[in-house]
Amino acid sequence: MNVREIGRLLRNRKISCVELIQETLADISKRDVFRSLITITADQALGEAAERDQELAQGIDRGPLHGIPTAHKDLFYTRGVLTTGGSLIFRNFVPEFNATVVEKLKTAGAISIGKANLHELAYGITSKNPHYGFVLNPRDVTRIAGGSSGGSAALIAAGFIPVSLGTDTGGSIRIPASYCGIVGLKPTYGRVSVRGVLPLAFSLDHVGPLASCIEDCALVMNAIAGDKDVDFNLAPLHDLRGVKVGVPKNFFFDGVSEEIATAVKKSIAELRREGAFVSEVQVPNLRDANFAARIVQLAETAALYAHHTDPALFGEDVWALIQQGKTIAGHDYVNAQRLRTTFRREFDALWKKIDVLIAPATPIAAPHLDETRVRIGNEEEDVRMASTRLVRAMNYTGEPALSMPCGQTSAGLPIGLQLISRPFSEPRLLQIAKTLEAVVSWTHSRAAGPNL
Q1: Tens of pLDDT along 60-106?
Q2: I want to staple 181 with a disulfide (CB 3.0 to 4.6 A). Which of 110, 355, 405, 412 is the partner?
């Protein structure tokens, strides 16, 4: 159920906030084989639910998120609650204050039921966490949920909660959204506060929502964004006449599985049928952007963790990446940062021609847990490189980008569609996505969640 549906039940007194949280926790206890949570905060959640019930009884309504269950990726500071970062380094870390976005969601009335599992230190795309368990994909438990916000996505895909918070440094919201068949938004860089969030790479980190639908993403953005005069939840358009959609000639459809490309092209056809003006466009050289972004991430993450010298505290993959980051020369890092200006100019020129860019979110569907390489057509590619290839550059340039489901493979796995737009255009991006959501075929059975 989505936020609007749950909210209607709460306001019509069909269920109380306490009963909702009790049923959510019971459902998680019964069905969560996905290792989606590191910490469950049952007592705290039930206490907050009782307060939200009392407020409704007194005529106090905090808005659409009042009483809605949520969870926070275990990078977000939560006052008095263990915040591990999915790592042994922070296994005993209990913050004294809430992250800004955690506090904003609480003020909006949302109730956190716990801290979601993730790829260690948010530094990976599988969420195969060696310390807190491998997160499994609710659509197929033999496959990864994606990462690094894998637990956040799994909670929603399983139907436990409608919304969750994640972070995105190289695709870590959009990849699990694509693999789990839900919606995930990486906002414009700087749009949402990262205060009180364990960092990975300072100039690439973004905070954003994962949700059951586009509207739920918009409602969370209304709560967490710093722009109180901006409404992210605009009504869907009657049609898409006047909307200029760019289809990339280069890069985004290179090395993409045939089923993924076909599903995305069907969505493009739906946009055209809804009246959008669709044209092919040349995008900047995103292979070079990806290369520069990886240099930035490797160097900035190594700077954070270089003083840790015991490899036993890290998973093998994360330790290897930190050591690799130590080898990045200062001039390479500076030059990679300088290139951002060039790519920003090129994208600014592109946004003068189009409103939104449409592309696959990932070139493949969710890989199996034991896969380290995947075959796309006649080529093989590392799972991590394949998963991040179509999303990483948007962390580097800062454009808002979302992943939404647009179909399924012959194996029944979700296919993610990516929509990208100019900086600080999230309300329009979400409005276009909401309009498309109503017409795009997505037939995968959705988990029911608590028995409401």
Answers
A1: 999 999 999 999 999 999 999 999 999 999 999 999 999 999 999 99
A2: 405
387 has catalytic annotation:
no
Active-site residue flag, 172: yes
Question: Is 151 contained in some domain?
Answer: yes
Give the structural domain span for 128: 3-289+327-437
Catalytic residue among 36, 164, 172, 387: 172
pLDDT at 445 over 50: no
Active-site entry in 16, 36, 73, 127: 73
Helix, strand, coil percent values for the chain (each to nearest 5): 40, 20, 40
Residue of 171 and 444 predicted with greater confidence? 171
**Of residues 36, 148, 164, 425, which has the active-site annotation?**
148
421-448 exposure pattern, b = at least 16 Cβ within 10 A, e = fewer:
bbbbbbbbbbbbbbbbbeebebeeebee
Distance CA 126, CA 367 (A): 9
Q: Is residue 74 part of a domain?
A: yes
Within a domain: residue 106? yes
**DSSP summary character for residue 309:** -
pLDDT, one tens digit per residue, over 379-430 is 999 999 999 999 999 999 999 999 999 999 999 999 999 999 999 999 999 9
Is 148 labeled as catalytic in the residue annotation? yes
Query: Looking at the predicted structure, is the pLDDT value of residue 300 above 50?
Result: yes
- The number of distinct structural domains making up the chain is 1
CATH of the domain at 267: 3.90.1300.10
Residue whose token pair is 């001039």: 331
